[in-house]
Design goal:
It contains 9 helices and 2 strands. The chain has helices spanning 2-12, 32-35, 60-72, 76-83, 92-104, 108-121, 126-138, 142-154, 161-172; strands at residues 42-44, 49-51. A two-stranded antiparallel sheet has the order 1-2.
Length: 178
C-alpha cells in the first residue's frame, strides 16, 4: 500500500504545490490521541471520541498533527496508519512525515525515497532536508548530511529549526525524534 502511495506521489508531483509545513522547534504537546486513545486510534475533533484513523472526520491538517504526535511518541506504525488516510498523501509535508516514520521504524531506504519525493514536490522543504540529513548522520554519511545542511542554509533556512536540528545531529551523532 505504501509503495502504491509513493508511486502515486511521483506520478502527480508536478501538480502538487503545497508548502513544506511545520518547522516548529517544540515537540508536539500530548493530546487525547496519545493520552486517552490507544491501539492505533486517534481523537476525533468533531465527535470528541477515539476513532480509527479511517473513521475519523478530522481534516488532513488535524491528521498531520496526529502523525507528528504519534511519531514523537514512537508509535511509527500508528503514524503511518494515519498518513494512509490523508486526502492528499502526496502533499510535501505528508511525504516528509512518511519518510520520517519509515526511517525511524528502520525502513531507511523507503524513508529516504519519501524524502526525495518531498523534495521533488518542494525543493525548499527544509524539514525534509533536515530529516534526510539526520538520516545520513545516522548512517554515517556526513558528506551527504553536510550537503543537506548547505542546501538548508542556501534556501533561507539559517537559524531555523531544520538547520539547528541537523547541525546538532551532525555535532552529536544523534537526530531528533520529532
Amino acid at each position: 500500500m505504501r509503495l502504491l502511495h509513493l508511486a502515486f506521489a511521483f506520478a502527480i508531483l508536478p501538480a502538487v504545490a503545497f508548502s513544506a509545513g511545520s518547522d516548529d522547534p517544540e515537540p508536539p504537546k500530548p493530546t487525547e490521541t496519545t493520552t486517552v486513545c490507544g491501539d492505533g486510534l486517534v481523537w476525533d475533533l468533531a465527535t470528541k471520541s477515539c476513532l480509527s484513523p479511517a473513521n475519523s472526520t478530522n481534516d488532513d491538517n488535524a491528521r498531520l498533527n496526529d502523525v507528528r504526535e504519534l511519531a514523537y511518541a514512537g508509535y511509527y506504525q500508528a503514524a503511518l496508519d494515519v498518513l494512509d488516510t490523508l486526502d492528499n498523501p502526496a502533499a510535501p509535508l505528508a511525504l516528509t512525515y512518511y519518510g520520517f516514520a519509515h526511517r525511524k521504524a528502520g525502513e531507511i531506504d523507503l524513508g529516504m525515497a519519501y524524502y526525495d519525493a518531498a523534495l521533488v514536490a518542494d525543493p525548499d522543504n527544509l524539514l525534509a532536508r533536515s530529516y534526510m540529513g539526520q538520516g545520513f548522520v545516522a548512517s554515517g554519511d556526513m558528506v551527504q548530511a553536510q550537503v543537506q545542511l548547505t542546501e538548508i542554509r542556501m534556501r533561507g533556512g539559517r537559524d531555523t529549526w531544520p538547520e539547528l536540528a541537523l547541525a546538532q545531529a551532525m555535532a552529536t551523532g544523534v537526530g531528533t525524534t520529532y
